[in-house]
Write a structure and sequence with these properties.
Layout (H helix, E strand, L loop, with lengths): L9 H32 L1 H25 L1 H11 L7 H13 L1 H9 L12 H13 L3 H13 L5 H23 L9 H24 L2 H6 L10 H35 L1 H17 L1 H19 L3 H28 L2 H7 L10 H30 L3 H25 L7 H24 L8
């Protein structure tokens, strides 16, 4: 069987990066469609799902952060040509994902007692939160299976599975949120949550089916490697713990900001959530590049190719700058495209358009700098240097965004939403400077297998 060689050539870079970018575009599009369809149902439903979804994301991304560590080990095993060990890291993280239900299910059961939703978001938000939490373990299981393919640079498989999930989610969103006559009742937020869960299950089934294909069982021992490997599990936990902790702390931060804006007024919450929805869609380039460069560099660390890593990083910096310019076109120069979509909603938001335009400009700056930051972060992650990056990002997030936002809220001055987005831009600029200094130090250059 032919094994995929992942190196710093342009062909290899694009073959890994483009599918990953498309995968995240599809995933983020799924989130955007969710929120847009809920906004078409009612603005309160969109705001409720945004706050409740961020709360559920605290726990989901916490476990995803840990499970993501499997990619590093798969990548380094692949680079070292130890192909019979590739499935072992994925299995260790599958077991961790199954165990995560011990956290998700109790929180789902007590959702009505664990909420900080404003009254206008309460009913829909609790339903949305409860459904996502009951099926919370699906996201880390899906991530563990995906790590087996991403670490090898076989990212087209991920793109396929995400595309199926996106189409499934879009169709079910329309059917379950709005209903179909007397056949299917309209379900609002509950319908959106059910659609998301079914889409995640569909993606997981596709990845599992390919993972257990006869060829993969024979060459990569995807069935034989199912045993718990204590040393490998501990190594995965060690490498993944900083990312897990970072994801937990950062999601708490974003949930706090979203909750504060939701409690000020509907208008403030609406402007903030529209900006976040657009930001989450456009950051797909940075997220895809982060995964791609981490995969490529992990493989090159396995071969001890430092020069190749440095050349690859330069290419990703150029790609980040180019993508930043491209993304500015619809958000800065043609914001009317976004506003015309908002005109389609049942609520009249025209009085908010001035602030929304400013938010779109700041989102452009944020996404541009964050794409560059995520590329730098990906290089550090390839060597298992996840602790430094997590600490830097969390320190910047809390000092430059959360604390200033909370102070404005306490002073009853948090009425101008663009201020929060200005804080967010400062966060990614400062974080990139600090991560780049770490990159230049080479303290991240470690072979783990």
């Amino acid at each position: 069987m032919e094994h995929k060689i992942v190196d710093g050539s342009l062909r290899s870079i694009f073959s890994v990066t483009i599918p990953m970018v498309l995968s995240f575009m599809s995933t983020n599009l799924m989130y955007t469609i969710d929120k847009f369809m809920l906004a078409g149902y009612s603005i309160d439903a969109m705001n409720a799902a945004s706050v409740a979804g961020t709360f559920a994301g605290i726990f989901s991304f916490m476990f995803i952060g840990m499970v993501d560590s499997a990619e590093i080990f798969v990548g380094q095993y692949n680079g070292a040509k130890q192909y019979d060990k590739l499935a072992a890291p994925a299995w260790q993280m599958i077991y961790l994902s199954l165990a995560s239900s011990l956290v998700f299910v109790p929180i789902a059961y007590f959702s009505d007692k664990i909420n900080t939703l404003p009254d206008y978001c309460l009913k829909g938000g609790l339903e949305y939160q409860r459904i996502l939490m009951y099926f919370g373990m699906m996201a880390p299981i899906k991530t563990a299976l995906a790590a087996f393919f991403i670490g090898q640079g076989k990212t087209k498989i991920i793109t396929l599975s995400v595309a199926v999930a996106t189409v499934t989610n879009t169709i079910l969103d329309y059917v379950l949120i709005y209903g179909i006559g007397d056949v299917i009742p309209e379900m609002g937020c509950s319908g959106a949550a059910i659609a998301t869960v079914i889409a995640e299950i569909a993606q997981t089934v596709i990845l599992a089916a390919i993972f257990f294909r006869k060829r993969n069982r024979r060459v990569y021992k995807t069935l034989e490697n199912r045993k718990i490997n204590s040393p490998l599990l501990c190594n995965c936990l060690r490498v993944g713990f900083p990312t897990m902790s970072g994801n937990l702390i950062s999601m708490v931060a974003w949930w706090a900001i979203q909750t504060l804006t939701a409690h000020i007024s509907r208008d403030v919450a609406t402007i903030y959530n529209i900006g976040i929805t657009i930001y989450i869609f456009f950051i797909f380039v940075g997220e895809g590049m982060n995964k791609a460069i981490a995969t490529i560099c992990a493989n090159m660390i396995g071969r001890r190719d430092l020069q190749g890593i440095q050349e690859t990083y330069k290419i990703f910096v150029i790609m980040s700058m180019f993508c930043g310019v491209i993304m500015s076109i619809p958000l800065v120069f043609f914001p009317q495209c976004i506003l015309s979509m908002l005109d389609m909603l049942p609520n009249n938001l025209s009085e908010l358009y001035t602030d929304i335009k400013i938010v779109l400009f700041l989102v452009t700056l944020n996404v541009g700098f964050e794409t560059l930051m995520l590329s730098t972060w990906g290089v550090l992650s390839a060597g298992g240097d996840t602790k430094y990056a997590a600490i830097v990002y969390q320190a910047c997030l809390w000092l430059l965004v959360v604390f200033p936002t909370a102070l404005l809220y306490w002073l009853n001055a948090l009425t101008y939403v663009p201020t929060v987005y200005a804080f967010m831009t400062a966060l990614v600029v400062v974080a990139q400077i600090l991560l780049y200094r770490r990159y230049k130090s080479l303290k991240w250059y470690n072979k783990l297998v």
